[in-house]
Write a structure and sequence with these properties.
- The structure is a single chain.
- The protein is an alpha/beta fold and 239 residues long.
- It has two domains: 148 residues, ATPase, nucleotide binding domain (Nucleotidyltransferase, domain 5, 2-Layer Sandwich); 68 residues, ATPase, nucleotide binding domain (Nucleotidyltransferase, domain 5, 2-Layer Sandwich).
- It has seven helices and twelve strands.
- A five-stranded mixed sheet has the order 5-4-3-6-7, with helices on both faces. The chain has a five-stranded mixed sheet with strand order 10-9-8-11-12. Strands 1-2 form a two-stranded antiparallel sheet.
- The radius of gyration is 18 Å and the shape is globular.
Length: 239
């Protein structure tokens, strides 16, 4: 937060990008207010849509890029291509404006969007071969399940009864969670709005930095890269 000439606190203007999931979204947020939001259709190419979404929210809110005071971006886990597109976009925009950037966990953003500030929420993204990228959070930013790559069946065994589920991994493996009395999420905000709010928290904690320093958090090496290097990408079970 910054103060105006009267000492009143002014929330920074945040441009947030979430391109790690199947439906990329971009939000322009000021404090608790969403000034503009744009989302692509599920399955849309991040490379073909993210920059257009950025332009759309700026036009919608009648805001110049130079007014943006913080860029926030989901750094993973999630789609390898989507993560690269989101990071490249933020780095290009931040270079032009010199504003700092904040990196945000995709799973934490999905959980916040699903209501983790008031309920226990598990965010799961499909990692293929029966695995999921997963993390669980509760009120007060409590981490109930550490972010990681897990077999979906193991996550289903470990999750607390009554946990809210969100993410494509939860939908894909819904049969595994049927006995845990878990319920699907009813999002209270978009993933991009959640990225903006988490990015602002990082700024307030002094964790924002130059966008050029941000790197993707894949958790699993991209399969094409693994094949090139001859590295197996086996599931890991930390329990």
């Amino acid at each position: 937060m910054v103060a105006d000439e009267r000492g009143a606190l002014i929330a920074p203007l945040v441009l947030a990008i979430e391109s790690a999931t199947a439906a990329p979204s971009v939000a322009l947020v000021e404090g608790d207010r969403t000034l503009a939001l744009a989302s692509a259709q599920p399955g849309a190419s991040a490379a073909a849509t993210v920059l257009a979404l950025v332009e759309a929210v700026l036009v919608d809110a009648s805001v110049r890029l130079s007014r943006v005071e913080l860029f926030a971006v989901a750094i993973g886990p999630g789609s390898f291509t989507g993560l690269r597109v989101g990071l490249a976009t933020v780095k290009g925009l931040a270079f032009a404006s010199a504003a700092p950037a904040a990196d945000v966990s995709t799973l934490e953003a999905l959980a916040l969007a699903a209501g983790s500030q008031r309920s226990r929420v598990a965010a799961l993204l499909d990692a293929r071969r029966g695995d999921v990228y997963a993390a669980a959070f509760g009120p007060g930013e409590r981490e109930l399940l550490a972010e990681g790559l897990y077999p979906a069946a193991v996550v289903a065994e470990r999750l607390a009864t009554g946990c809210i589920l969100t993410g494509d991994g939860a939908r894909l493996h819904r049969d595994l969670f049927a006995g845990a009395a878990c319920s699907p999420a009813e999002p209270c905000m978009s993933p991009a709005e959640a990225v903006a709010r988490l990015g602002l928290r990082r700024l307030e904690r002094g964790l924002a930095r130059p966008a050029a320093e941000l790197v993707p958090h894949y958790l699993r090496r991209a399969e094409a890269e693994a094949r090139r290097l001859g590295i197996a990408t086996e599931s890991k079970n930390p329990f």
